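Researcher: I've been going back and forth with a colleague about how Elongator complex protein 1 might be arranged in three dimensions. Neither of us has a model we trust, so I'd like an independent prediction. The organism is Cinara cedri, in case that matters for your notes. Sequence below.
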Amino acid sequence: MKNLKIYKSSLSRIQLPKDATSALIINYGEFCYATNNAIYRSNSDLQHQLAVYDNFSMVIDLSTTKMYIDQDVQIVSYAYNTPWNSFVVGCSNGDVLLIQENIVEVAFKCEDVVATILCSPDFERIILLTEHGHVTLVTECFEVLNNFNITETSLAEKTLVNVGWGKKETQFHGSEGKDKRHVNEVIGDGDCADDSVNVCWRSDSLLFAIGYFNKITNLRSIKIFNRDGVLQSISEPLSGIEAVLSWKTTKELISFSQHINEKYCISFMEKNGLKHGEFSIPSTINVKQLLWNHDSSILCIQCVKSNNNYLLFLSCTNYSWQIKKWLTVHDKVITVKWLPDNSLQLITADGTYYILHWVETLCSSSSGTLDWVAVIDDCSILLTPFKQVIIPPPMFDVKLIFECHVDSVLYLPHNQNKNGNDICVVTDDRSIHFYNYKDVLYTKSKTINSILNATGLCNHWFWLNENTLIFSLSEVGNFHFICILKVDNDSINITKHPVDQPIVGIINHKNGALIQLSVGNVLLWNEELNQIDPHINLPEECTCINIMDNKIYALGVSKRLFENDKVILNNIGSFCIRYPFVLAATLNQELIVHNINPTKDSNNQYRRRVESGSKIITVTGNSVILQLPRGNLETIRPRPLTILSAIELIQERKYFTTFDLLRKERINLNIICDLDPLKFIDDLDEFVIQIKDLSWINLFITELDDKNYLNTVYASQFQQNMVEELPNKVFIICSQLINTLNKLDTDKYAFPLLGCYVKLKRFDLALNLASTNNAFLKHLLFLVDVDKLYKTSLAEYNLEMAMQIINNSQLDPKEYVPFLKELEKMECHYMRFTIDDKLGNKESAVKNLVLCEGQFDKWLKYVIDNNLYAYTLTLFNQDQNEYKIIAKHFGDVLYSKMDYLQAALMYNQSTERKKAINSYLKIGFWKEPLELSYELNFSELEMNEIKANILSMLSSTQKFREAADFAEFEMRNTELAVEYSIKAQDYMHALYLARSRSILDTYLENNIKLACINTTQNLISDINIQREKFESFVIRLLEIKVDISNESMSYDNLNDTSSEISSVSSYRTSSTRTSCRSARKQQRKMWNLKKGNFREQPTIVLNLKQIIEKFDKFKDDVKSMCILLIKLEEFDLSVTLQTSLESLQTCILKNKSNIWPVFNETEQIIEDAILLNPLKILPDKSWKLSILE
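Model: Here is an independent structure prediction for Elongator complex protein 1. You can compare it with whatever you and your colleague have in mind.
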C-alpha cells in the first residue's frame, strides 16, 4: 500500500572535460572519471554536498607514466577497490595495472584487451573480461583461479536431471490449462540480437553470472559460476533476453530484461538456471540497466524512450510489481549507483550530479474521512476506503487513470472544512488535477497544466487548502526552494523562498505549514505574512513527520520517535497518529499505543505483539491496518482505540453500537455508565429502547460494579485524567433501572428485573416476581444458587415458594419435602422459630419462641445455650419477672468470665441484688456496695461485715489514702484513719487528724515522728546516691570525649579504601531477619553501660538526663518533708535534707556544659540525636526554705 518518494535531493554541477569517456561513483559525494589516457578523482569533503565539483586529483596519466611514455596505450576499463583504496585499470595493450598510494605496477597481463573489470562485493575476487569473451578470475592479489572462454561448451556441476515425472504432455498443469501441455519451440533471436557480454556478482560474493550470445542456439544464455570460477549451471533456453543482467541484493534471483512475444518484461531466474516468473513493463522503453537497492525493495530501471532518458522506480507487493515513479533525466546517464543508505546517485553527460534519497511513503486521507489510501501504479491511482472496506493489495476499490505518469496524490489536512475525501493528483508533466468525491464517485473538477518549466526536481507536494499547494524545488548548484502555489480560477502564482538545506518534509500548521530541513531544523511558513521563520530544531533528520495537538511527532533516521525535541519511543519502523494516541510499529515485532497525555497510573503505553516487519498503513475507527512484508494486510484492534471509539459513541448516545463493540472486544460494559453516570441514568429509557435484546441487558446488569473502570482498569488507555465517580453506583443504577423497566413493561422485562433484584441482593423481591410465572422462577434459579433461594423463601416463611423451588431444581425431594410438610402442621410462631433456628437466625428464632405460649423453660434453655441474653432482655420490660430471671443468668455468665462490673449491673437488675455487692468489691469499688447496702436496708451487723470487707479490700490493694478516708468518715475510727495515713506516707494529714480529734498522745506522736524520720533518711540516701552516680557518669563522659578526639585524628590518616572494604556485607548479614526477642536483646545491648560499648556516650547522657528528671521530682518532696520536720522539731534533719538536694543541684548546674556542649552545624549532622537535645536547667530556689540556710 506504500508509494516511493524522494525525501531528500541535491543537484550539483561537475566540471567534466569534453574528452571524459566514463565516470564511476565511489561513495557518497565521491566519484572519479576517466579519459582515454587518465583517471581523475574528486577531492571533496564527504560531509558536505558541494554546489560545483571542480577540484580533482589525478590518479594516473598513461601519457606521463614512465613505462608507457613512448607508447599509444589507452585506458579501456577500470574499477575501484574500496578496502585497499586502489584502482585496477585495464589498458589497450592487455596490461592490468594496480594503482595504490600513487604507486603504479603491472599486476597482470592478458593476451587481449580487458573490456570489463568487475570486483566482487567483498573485493576478494576480480573478473577480467576481454572483448572476445575470455574470462580470467583472479584473487585480490591477482592469483589466477580460473581462465576460460564464456562461449565454450562445458558441463556444469549442477546439471538439471529428469526425475521421471513423464512427458510434458502428460503432466498436470493446474490453472495454466491444457494449452501448457505442448512444449513451445524456442525461436532464435536472429541477427538483431545483442552479442555483448555482461557480468554481475551476487551480493554475498559466492556466485556470479555472465550473460552472452550463444551462436549455436542463436540465443542469449546465462551461465552461473561459483566464486572460484567453476560453472554451476546454465540457463534454460529463453528467447528475447537482452544484455541487461543484475542479481537481486537479497541473493535469491537474477533479473534481466526480456521480450516475450509482444510483451516487454523484467524476468527472474534462479541460480539453477530456471526461469522464475516475470512482470510487464512499458514496451515503449528500452532498458539499459537494472539496479536494486540494499534490500531489493526498490528496483530502478535505467531506460531510454524516444531519445529521452528516464529512471523508473518500482516496488512489489503481493508479487505484483508497480511503477511508483518516472524520473526524467535531461541528458544521457553516464553512471548510476545505489548506496547502502538508500540513496541513488547518478551522473549525466552534462555534468549534473544527482543524489536522491528514497523512502517509502503512505498517501492516506486525514481522520474524519473514509480513510482512503492511494497507491500509485504508473499512470493509475488505486484507491481503497478502509473505513468501508478492507481490500488487500494489489486489489482496490476505485481506479483513476491518467494520460501521464502519476507523481503524487494529495489529500487535505484534517483542519480544513472542505471535504477530506477530495484528492489532488500531480503528474510527472507537472500538471495538477483536482477531483471531488460525491455520491461514491470521483469527478474531475479542475486541471492546471504545466505549472513550472524549471529543470529541477519538484518534491514534497502538500495540499494546504483549497487554493494553496506547497512543494520543494531542488535546482542544479545545490539550490533549494520552498514554492507556494496559489490557484485562482485558472490562473496560478508561484512564490519561491530559498532555504539553506535540502527539504525533507512539509506538514500543516494552524498558521500555515511547517518545513523540515535535512539538518533537523523546522521552519514555519506563515500564510498570512507569506514569510518563513525558524520554528523548532529536531535532534536529527527525520523521514516521517506529523503534527498533533500543536506538537511535532517525527521519526528520525536512527529509528527514534520524537515529540518535538524529546525522544518518546525507540526502535520504531513506522507510526501514525490519532488523538490522543501515537501508534507505532517497532522493529522488534511490537505495536505500541502511546498516550500523549499523562495518565493516572503513569502507564501511558499499550503494547502487543505483531508479525515481524509489519508497518502501519492507516487507523480507521478502532482498527489498525498493518501491512506485512509480503504485502498482506492484517487488522488488529488495540484496546485503547476501542475504548476511545466507545467513548465517542457514548457521547453520541449510540448505546447499541457501543454495546456491540464492547461485547465483541470483551471490554467490561461498566464504561457505558462510568463516563458520565448521571447522564446515563437520565438516558436509561433510551438505553433500554436501543438495546432491545433482553440477554444484552442481563449481561450489562451482571457486569455492573461499584468500581469506576475508566479510573482503574482502563486508566492507562483512557485519554482523560479523571471522570467523576458515582458512589453506590450499583445500587443507584439498578434502582433506577427497576423503575424504568417497570414503567415500560414488567412482564416483558422480567428477566432484567430479576437480575437487578439479585444484584441488589433483594432476593425477597425477586421471589415475589418469580412466583407469578414458572419461567421467571427458572431464570431466577439460573441467576442464583438454589440453596440460597430455598433459604430465602424459608426466611420469608413462604413454604409454597420453597416447594416450587424444590420442584424446579435438582434438589432431592425426599430430603426437603418431609420437612416442609412437618412445618405446615406447626403453630405459626413455633414454625417460624423452627425455620429461623434451622437458618441460624438465632435472635429471630428466640423472638418467635417467646411468642409461643407455655414455652418458658424451652426458650430460657435456648437463650442460655445460644448466649442470647442481651437480645432477649430487649423483649421484656424491666419490671417483668422474665427480665429479672434472664438478668440473673446473664450476671452469672459475666461473673464466670470475671467481668465483675457488668455482672454487678446485671445482678442489680435481677432478683439477687446481693450478689452485686460482692461483684463491686471484686473490682475495688466501695461506694457502690455501701450505696446498695443502704438501699437494701441491711442490719447493723451486716453493714459492719460489709464495711470490714471494704476496708480489707482497700488495704490489700494498698489504697491506704482511701482506706484512711473510709475509716474516718464511715467507721468513725480516727486512730485507724491515722494509721492508714501513716501507711500512705501522708504524715501531714495523720498529724492533722491526731491533733484535730485531740487523740494525740506520746505513742501516736512517736509513731508519726518515727515514720517521718525514716522516710527522710531514705530520701537523703536516695539523693546522695543519685549525686554520686551523676559525678561518676560525668567523669566517664569526659574520658570518652578525649578518646574520641584522639581516634578521629588517627582515622583521618587512613586510606579511603578501608571504609569501602569494611562496608561490604556478606550474604549472611546483608539481610537481617531477627525475632522480637532478639530485637529486645539487641536493644538492651545497645544501651549497655559496659565500658567500651560503641554507644556508651549516648547511654551515659541518657542516664544523666534521667537523674536530672529525678531531681525535679525531689524538689516538691524535699520541701514538704522539711516543713513537716520543722513542725516535729527535727530542725537538724531538715537542714541535712535540704543541703543534700542543694548539693545535687549544684553538681548538675556545674556540669551542664560538659554533658551538652554547643556543637557547630557540621558536628550536629554527625552526632547522636540524644546529644543534641539538652534539658532546660535553671538555678531554681523556690523549693528551698530560707530559714534552713
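Researcher: What would you highlight for our discussion?
Model: I'd start with this: Residues 1051-1073, 1160-1167 have pLDDT under 50 and may be disordered. After that, consider the following. The chain has 31 helices and 56 strands.
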